[in-house]
């Protein structure tokens, strides 16, 4: 979705320039092969395996609490994202194999899979925002969190969030239709914009930019940053008040608090620095500053941002194991003790 809209916008505004500073063909193809064939597919495989393990472990009856319900939903989104990334990686690199194959792969991905990919990313970021809010409430109001946030309420919030995101990206499902062309005596698929999309193209671009900056970047960034700051600040303040308790009791309570928020803080930091900030910079350069870069450099920039997003979703299993003793214990009980 990001790739398709980026190309649409650049074509409409004629802002892409091919100048002498562009990368050479050899360097361009090497970067594409390394990024989209090697690194991206390795990360997709790790993301699929890690997400499946996360779903198995977080679905265990001993892991049922509000935080883990949200983490389970995040793992489902990461699994869907990693699976659709395989399609994206193939569509970006299939031209190295065969033009006809690349055309089929690109059209199929752009027609239906790309929207699912974007929905998974968008929902995953909003779920991380939700879990940062949940942990802040748990730390700041430990005696009231069970009343405010029950498992059933969290599930309702997750479903509502998913429905809102589907509604937000619904224009993507209706902007193009499939038709066939003849090329070198071979019938190939192609996409044609709907008449309603062409007539309202500039309104769509403004809508897309607004959604990206507000819903995808700005709001999650502000909420996650604020909740993370408040959580850390509250822990540092309460740790001083515990000095009046016996040292063992104070240390035990502080360790318990830190274990409950460490995994959330790591995920929040990763989502901010690997996803939100790079994507914000990319969008700002393209749409706000309107910097003119070649199409090759634009595709390379997209590949880099794409890899950063995959890194964030591929190593959650490692983060959960190292950051949550309960998660690690469940892994040992399920896969090793038997």
From TrEMBL:
Domain G-protein coupled receptors family 1 profile: residue ranges: 50-320
Entry keyword Transcription regulation: no
Signal sequence range: none
Predominant cellular place of this UniProt entry's protein: membrane
UniProt GO molecular function: G protein-coupled receptor activity
Annotated TM spans: 27-57, 69-88, 108-133, 154-174, 207-233, 263-287, 299-321
CDD domains assigned to the protein according to its UniProt record, in alphabetical order: 7tmA_FMRFamide_R-like (cd14978)
Gene3D superfamilies associated with the record: Rhodopsin 7-helix transmembrane proteins
Alphabetically ordered keywords of this record: Membrane, Transmembrane, Transmembrane helix
Assigned GO CC terms: membrane
Pfam families: 7tm_1 (PF00001)
Compartments it resides in: Membrane
Name assigned to this protein: FMRFamide receptor-like
Organism, as annotated: Biomphalaria glabrata (Bloodfluke planorb)
